[in-house]
Amino acid sequence: MIKAPKHISSIQPYQPGKPIEELERELGITDSVKLASNENPVGPSPRAVKELQKNLADLNRYPDGSCYYLRSALAKKLRVKQGSLIFGNGSNEIIELAVRTFISSGDQAIMAHPSFVVYSTIVQAAKGKSVVVPLKDMKHDLKTMASKITKKTKMIFIANPNNPTGTINTKKEMDAFMKKVPDGVLVVVDEAYYEYVESRDYPDSMNYLKKGRDILILRTFSKIYGLAALRIGYGISTAGIVEEMNKIRQPFNVNTLSQKAALAALKDDKHLKKANSVNHKGKKYLYKELDKLNIKYIPTEANFIFMLLGNESAPKLYKSLLKQGVIIRPMGPAAARVTIGLPAENKRFIEALKKTK
Ligand SMILES: Cc1ncc(COP(=O)(O)O)c(C=O)c1O
């Protein structure tokens, strides 16, 4: 049998969860609550759904490879040039395009741990080396990350807010960090949860772009816009960086329905506000209930909460909640992440948690 090269065969594959229907069948239940993947519990924008229904008859045509209408609308909204935008099959694809464009054998990428797991896998697939810096006080340790920059460093990943901790690095921290990053190192600021952030200290990363820095900002329609199933995200960068990444992008990487739905969702401020309000109220409710249960957690700027559990108790908690039809994400032996759901879902989670304690 043909063998994959070592840098591929040694990758730890992503473990997909079972389809929810299958899980429910196994558990003998029908009303499970999925709080494991940081999706928007409110659902997609009704305007996006309508747009999808309207365009179903055109599936025989290839999509618009330039995402023309979505690009125009987003460029206007963000006040950037159209050439500063690149669209992908989820922001995941933009991460992949950036790595494949700028990292070759032996190059280094600096990233935090724990953070979004995809970065290191993609770097490894490109024969690059991940330089991993542990979080400090549950946040990216930007000082140490900057100190790890060498001539081999091509890229630095900063998830802001970070997944799984929900923490942000402040404007002050980012400003100090950016001063230490030399030209020729691409700073990838992953802002998948940008729209949820409430802190006034959150940096406006577009300012670095305006100054002409080598920066790639990632955003997505999978989270607050509620379109995770459609797989559409985007990057904002300099025209030069986008131009290079476009050279290896598949011409039709974003499908027609995704483009149409994203454009409609982008215009649906009402839906965005509703999602934000549900998240804010759910956050406050969960804080209150977790406090009552004496469960430690990290205050979040996103749509999920990182809980600090006792040693070895996360897998047990996960299994116990699962049996009660509540799905969360264990994070190693002593922590777990729960997505903020609808009020009834949050309540189900808390009730199940009480039965476990
Ligand atoms: C920090 C972060 N970045 C990127 C993504 C990928 O999002 P998508 O590919 O759906 O746009 C996620 C998804 O969970 C995430 O948590």
Question: What is the terminal-to-terminal distance?
Answer: 50 Å
N-to-C order of helices and strands: HHEHHEHEHEHEHEHEEHHHEEHEEEH
Name of the CATH superfamily of the largest domain: Type I PLP-dependent aspartate aminotransferase-like (Major domain)
The number of domains: 2
User: Cα-atom Rg, whole angstroms?
Assistant: 21 Å
Number of helices: 14
Low-confidence stretches: none
* Total number of beta strands: 13
Mean pLDDT: 96
Q: Which class best fits the helix and strand makeup?
A: alpha/beta
Spatially, the strands of the biggest sheet line up as 2-8-7-6-5-3-4
Task: Describe the structure in your own words.
- The protein is 39% helix and 16% strand.
- With 357 residues, it is an alpha/beta fold.
- The longest helix has 24 residues, at 269-292.
- It has two domains: 17-44 and 270-356, Aspartate Aminotransferase, domain 1 (Alpha-Beta Complex), CATH 3.90.1150.10; 46-266, Type I PLP-dependent aspartate aminotransferase-like (Major domain) (Aspartate Aminotransferase, domain 2).
- Strand 5, helix 8 (171-180) and strand 6 (186-190) form a beta-alpha-beta unit.
- The radius of gyration is 21 Å and the shape is globular.
- The mean pLDDT is 96.
- A seven-stranded mixed sheet has the order 2-8-7-6-5-3-4, sandwiched between helices.
- The structure holds pyridoxal-5'-phosphate (PLP).
- The site of pyridoxal-5'-phosphate has 13 residues, from helix 5.
